[in-house]
Amino acid sequence: MSHQSHPTPIQWPDPAVAAQMSATIKDWARELGFGNIGITDTDLSAAEPDFLDWLAKQYHGDMDYMAKHGTKRSRPAELVPGTLRVISVNLNYLPEQVADGWQVLATPDKAYVARYAMGRDYHKVMRQKLQQLCTRITDTYGQFEYRVFADSAPVMEVALATKAGVGWRGKHTLLLNRQQGSWFFLGEIYTNLPLPIDAPTSAHCGSCSACIDICPTRAIVAPYELDARRCISYLTIEHKGSIPLELRPLIGNRIYGCDDCQLICPWNKFAVKTEESDFAVRNGLDSTALIDCFAWTEAEFQARMAGSAIYRIGYAQWLRNVAVGLGNAPSTPAVIHALQARQDDAHALVREHVAWALAKHLPSS
């Protein structure tokens, strides 16, 4: 765990002091821009069997890191010894100015990028804010043990946020909140502070199955159960190799991630736009043309995507994804020319997907 040095270590408070400390920490978190804050213990025994079953079904695909940490993911005190509590927060990311998602999806020569990835890399933004919160706690109350996480370690974020009352797990497996919808990131502080625990909220999906019905690849195989191997977010981000042939036509123009299950969710009528300037749209990624994305050189990709979550997938995977989008786009001379220009690309992965895309437009070739 990390900690800030301080002359007096924190004392275990009596319940009244602990309750006041909890309220103060939540106020500070809101000042930093977090939307909802909850505190829970480390007992994930109710969630662990479902997670192990998900792994046993191989639903994690190539994401070996999901399995390699054993029970550290579902037992926080094994990951960070001494952890007594988890402070769970969410941070809204939907920009105020952003192209309508449905309109972009309905324009097949445009590139659809998941709304969370259009600005600065959220890992950095979230970690900085969580660190600021921990520094303030230390400066006020004294030294304490903590470690911050932002989708960056074996942490069951949704299970912890559910226990902490930040929201409930939707049928698409993402967290939902009645006041905020689901367009937010989750972050955690593992700590030894003996703070009072918050109660979970009730679930409010009811009989709705909109997210299951809308999924382009039928990746939501049952309520609350996702086969990542079919998920477009997995295929375009986590999966490094060749995209299965039968899934390519279903990806449409989604070149980085997929938001369909969120776009359709009735609770996102209440989504709160972000006040975080780091999440503002960069490089026109909310509504750019597939051809333009495909024309970037590697240097342009690196320059434009620097500081973005998209940078992590690398140039070849970016071109692979855009090639699939172009294969699904209307046949125009410009689309065919763009694909032909990369027929001899240096990356075999790109060449393969370009050949597939060209065969869709020029079946006799």
From TrEMBL:
Catalyzed reactions: epoxyqueuosine(34) in tRNA + AH2 = queuosine(34) in tRNA + A + H2O
Q: Which cofactor does it need?
A: cob(II)alamin; [4Fe-4S] cluster
For this chain's record, the cofactor binding note is: Binds 2 [4Fe-4S] clusters per monomer.
Q: Where is the active site?
A: D151 (proton donor)
* GO molecular-function terms, A-Z: 4 iron, 4 sulfur cluster binding; cobalamin binding; epoxyqueuosine reductase activity; metal ion binding
The record lists tRNA as bound by K240
InterPro entries, per the entry? 4Fe4S_Fe-S-bd, 4Fe4S_Fe_S_CS, QueG, QueG_DUF1730
Q: Which residues form the 4Fe-4S ferredoxin-type domain?
A: 193-225
Q: Where does [4Fe-4S] cluster 1 bind?
A: C205, C208, C211, C265
Could you say which enzyme class this protein belongs to?
Answer: oxidoreductase
Q: Which residues bind [4Fe-4S] cluster 2?
A: C215, C231, C258, C261
Which pathway is this protein assigned to? tRNA modification; tRNA-queuosine biosynthesis
| Subcellular location(s) per record | Cytoplasm
Q: Which Gene Ontology terms describe the biological processes this protein takes part in? A: tRNA queuosine(34) biosynthetic process
Tell me the residue numbers annotated for binding cob(II)alamin: R73, D151, L175, L186, S233, C258, D259
> Subunit structure of this entry?
Monomer.
> What role does it play?
Catalyzes the conversion of epoxyqueuosine (oQ) to queuosine (Q), which is a hypermodified base found in the wobble positions of tRNA(Asp), tRNA(Asn), tRNA(His) and tRNA(Tyr).
User: What NCBIfam families does the database record attribute to this sequence?
Assistant: tRNA epoxyqueuosine(34) reductase QueG
What protein family does this chain belong to?
A: Belongs to the QueG family.
**Protein's recorded name:** Epoxyqueuosine reductase
Q: Which organism is it from?
A: Methylophilus medardicus
Q: What is the lineage of its organism?
A: Bacteria, Pseudomonadati, Pseudomonadota, Betaproteobacteria, Nitrosomonadales
